[in-house]
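Chapter review: from sequence to fold.
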Amino acid sequence: MPGTLIMTRELLPVRRGFHTEVSGHSTRLRRARFPGVGGPPAWRSAGASYPPGVPLYALGDAEPDIHPTAYVHPDAVVIGNVTLGPESTVWPTAVLRGDDGRIEVGARSSIQDGSIIHTTLQQPTIIGDEVTVGHNVHIEAATIGNRALVSSGSVVLNGATVGEGAVVAAGAVVSPKADVPAYRMALGVPARVRDGYEVPADRWRYAVESYVDRGRRFASQLRRLEG
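The token string follows.
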């Protein structure tokens, strides 16, 4: 039987005001743009624009900050204080709603069909680089480490942390303030860490690379049929 998740006594600290950018094979941190701070992002001031038909919404002064190499499907919805990093993708009927706080998605991460990403006044939602968020996932004011997998139908609740390379199994519910350690698997309701199992270090690679490639394909080939 899996062991019990380690519960944190308080919300884990996050690096507020930053998100990752990719340069070659390395990453660096860049200060994210928040309402009223710092002006427009560099790629927008350089003349980039959102693709036509992509449903991005401002909420007051808060506008999504989308890297030009990211892909947002026309049937997804992105609202308010949301940052989406290079080569990341958002798929049909996914919703990223940055109203009470901010949502940051790093480079080469995928938010797949039907997933809901939300945040709170107390805690942002931070999704790292090369993360796979499967179908029909709910993430609420949580922190997801680089190269983690949040599998289909799972829920990660307020203040929880999923470590680098960790896996949240399909249908699992990670309780508020729970901690899934790096390269471990959590499963069940409430989610518990699987004893004696360590996620292989390259477990992330196929899902991440396939969705980066898929985003490029959809950006160049998707067309709406009329009639």
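Two observations follow directly from the output. The first helix runs from residue 42 to 45. The longest strand covers residues 95-105.
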